[in-house]
Amino acid sequence: MATRYFGWDIGGAHLKIAQLDEFGAVVNLQQIACPLWRGVNELIGACESVTFDIAERNAVHAVTMTGELCDVFEDRIAGVQQIIGLLGSLLNDRAEIWIYGGGDGWLKPTEVDECHVPSVASANWLALATLVEELVNDCILLDVGSTTTDVVRIVNGEARFTGRDDESRLASEELVYTGVVRTPVIAVCRAVPYRGRWQNLAAEYFATMGDVYRLLGQIDHRYDLMPTADGRGKDRLSSARRLARMLGCDYESSDLSEICQVAAFIARTQHELIRNAIHLAMSRVPLFKKNPQIIGAGVGRFLAKRLSRSLDIGYRPFDSLIGSDPKLAEGIAVAAPAVAVAKLAWKAS
C-alpha cells in the first residue's frame, strides 16, 4: 500500500489537489489559480506553487480533469493527452499515476488513447458522485464552483444521471454553466430593476459574479483567485464600479446602496437558474424514499445551503461526510472532486 495518496482535479481555471495519509485521512489541500486557456505552462506554474511535497516516493497520484475543454487545445483528445503527458513529466518516475476513467476504471497514462478519452474527460463530477453515493442514500449533490454547477441525483445509494459528457449534461441541465466567481454577469441576466425601470445590461465582459458576491460579502477571498474583468482590485469599490459599467453608467459613491440592490437581484436570478435545474433533476425521480437532502460542495456552497432552505429540504456540507480535521473543512468542500478521487484511489489500493 502507498504511504500517500494525492487527488488532482485539473480544471480550466484552477488546480485543486488533496493529500491523504496511508489511513485515508485528508492531511493537505490546496486550490491554485491555473488559467489553462493561456497555455499549458500555467499548469507547470501551478504545480510548482503547491506548498506541500508532491514528490514523495511510494505515492499514488489519482487524476481527474475538466481542463481539456480549454480552447488552447485543438480538441478534447489533445487536451486530455497533453495534460496527462505534462503531469507525467512533472512527476517523472517518482510515483504511480492513476487516471480516473469512470466506468473504464483506473487507467495508466499510457492506456489513455482516443477510445478512453470520453471516459476521462470532464469526469470530476462523476468521481465526486461515486464517493458520495457510498455515503448517502438519497440526495441531490450540488457542487457550485467558480465557473459551473453540477447537479447529480443519488437515489438508493446510486448516482443517477441523464448525461455523461459535457454536451449531454448541458442539455439535461445536470451541468449548469454558471458559477460564483468567473461567470460574466451578462450570462446570468439581461436586465435588472434600477431606479424605477428595467435597465438593460451591456452585453460586455465588464463584470463577473465575483463582483456580485464581493458586494454582498459572500465570497471567501481565499478562493477568489481569478483576475477581475478589468484587471483591477477585488475590493467592494472596484466591484461596484464594474457593476455600474454593466448599467451603462459611471459609479458615484452615493450609488453604493443601489448597486448592492442590483447585485442582490443578479444573485437571486442565478439562484433561480440553479433552483430550476434542481427541480428538473428531482422531477426525474419523483419518489425518493424520503425527502432528499442537498449535499453542498464547491466555493459556492453558500448557494447550496440557501437553495436547500428555499426548497424546504435538508442540507449537509460535503466536508461533514469526510470527517477530517475541522481546520480542513472549508478546503475539503472547495476541493471536493480532488478529495473524492484521492479517496477512491485509497479505497482501490
Task: Describe this protein with a few key phrases.
alpha/beta, Nucleotidyltransferase, domain 5, 349 residues, six-stranded mixed beta sheet, 14 strands, 20% strand
Radius of gyration: 20 Å
Distance between the termini: 6 Å
Largest pleated sheet: 6 strands, mixed
CATH class term of the largest domain: Alpha Beta
* Strand order in space, largest sheet: 3-2-1-4-5-6
Structure classification: alpha/beta
How many DSSP helices?
A: 12
Overall number of strands: 14
| Bulk shape | globular
Characterise the protein shown here.
- The structure is a single chain.
- With 349 residues, the chain is an alpha/beta fold.
- It has two domains: 4-135 and 321-348, Nucleotidyltransferase, domain 5, CATH 3.30.420; 185-272, Nucleotidyltransferase, domain 5, CATH 3.30.420.190.
- The protein is built from twelve helices and 14 strands.
- The strands form three sheets. Strands 3-2-1-4-5-6 form a six-stranded mixed β-sheet, sandwiched between helices. Strands 7, 8, 9, 10, 13 and 14 form a six-stranded mixed β-sheet that branches. The chain has a two-stranded antiparallel sheet with strand order 11-12.
- The mean pLDDT is 94.
Structural topology:
Blueprint: E1 4-10, E2 14-20, E3 26-33, H1 41-48, E4 59-65, H2 76-91, E5 96-100, E6 106-107, H3 117-120, H4 124-132, E7 139-144, E8 149-155, E9 158-160, H5 166-172, E10 175-176, E11 191-194, E12 197-200, H6 209-215, H7 236-246, H8 256-283, E13 293-297, H9 301-311, E14 315-317, H10 319-322, H11 329-334, H12 336-348
Parallel strand pairs: 1-4, 4-5, 7-13, 13-14
Antiparallel strand pairs: 1-2, 2-3, 5-6, 7-8, 8-9, 8-10, 11-12
Helix pairs in contact: 4-12, 6-7, 6-8, 7-8
